[in-house]
Amino acid sequence: MTDTSSFSVILVEPQLGENIGMVARAMWNCGIRDLRLVNPRDGWPSQPARAACSGAGIVVEAARVYESTSDAIADLNFVLATTARSRDMTKPAFTPEAAAKEMKGRAGTGHNIGVLYGKESSGLDNDDIALADATITVPLNPEFTSLNLAQAVLLLSYEWFKLEDQSVPYELQMPDDTRPANKQELLWLYEHLEQELDNKGFLMVTEKRPIMIRKIRNMLARAQMTEQEVRIYRGMIASLVRTRRPGDPADISED
User: Fold this and answer.
1) Burial (Cβ within 10 Å: 0-12, 13-18, ≥19) of residue 136
2) Distance CA 84, CA 184 (A)
3) For labeling, which of 2, 38, 208, 230 is most exposed (least CB within 10 Å)?
């Protein structure tokens, strides 16, 4: 069976327990068991989810619940967001087949991978998509692109499953003393930078602030930083805002 230990499915604000159960069934069809739920509307545990999973109880019983999307992806290194339409963001965009190959290649170099799926009624909001490294859109009949939640999960899960023993190398060289930054480390960097930008008045236009923050986060995410590079970047920010007296040496530390 394909190694699925590095693949997580994250449902953001799912609405019906039955749909969560059917997602679990689709996941276990493809050997995937790490299900993460962000604020399920009807609460958790869910008897409707158990009833609808049709033998995939191993996934339902192990599902973890989080208060926010950022919490749910904090330990992941590469996250994709599913969307049916363009969101006016500069991100790599994949079909399910291409996404699975990218994911498999990254998993082969130690990345933990996650895919975000939005609520049944409206999908993911822009702030959730801004947290992702790339998007996935399924090429379908342009006159009717609607998929239910379990269908969407099954499409990508199956593409992943088909790649058994077909790992695609991802060319990313890094020193032995570091690793890819996880989402929690990147979130700390984003918040650190945004705080200092607020302090300097850069984000003073209230109505433009959310858009500017998303663009800044997208820009930094594309850099694919290591945890060491995140520490260096935060040290640079701290050095730039620290009050220095004339003649003090420049601070070139990593923290």
Assistant:
1) buried
2) 27
3) 208
Summary mean pLDDT of the chain: 89
Amino acid found at 40: P
Q: 208 with 153, same domain?
A: no
Rounded to whole angstroms, the Cα distance separating 32 from 113 reads: 12
Q: What is the predicted pLDDT for the residue at 176?
A: 79
Q: How far apart are CA 16 and CA 29, in angstroms?
A: 20
**Residue 247 lies inside a defined structural domain of this protein:** no
Identify whether 157 is part of a domain.
yes
DSSP conformation letters of 110-160? T--EEEEE-BTTTB--HHHHHTSSEEE-----TT-----HHHHHHHHHHHH
How many whole angstroms separate alpha carbon 149 and alpha carbon 101?
22
Q: What average pLDDT does the segment 45-65 reach?
A: 95
Please check whether residue 20 is in contact with residue 40, taking contact to mean a CB–CB distance below 8 angstroms: yes
Contact in structure between 223 and 189 (CB atoms under 8 Å): no
pTM exceeds 0.85, yes or no: no
Same structural domain for residues 67 and 37?
A: yes
Q: What is the Cα 222 distance to its own chain's centre?
A: 13
**Which amino acid makes up residue 130?**
A
Q: Are residues 89 and 214 in the same domain?
A: no
Q: For residues 43 and 140, state if they share a domain.
A: yes
Phi, psi of 24 (to 5 degrees): -60, -40
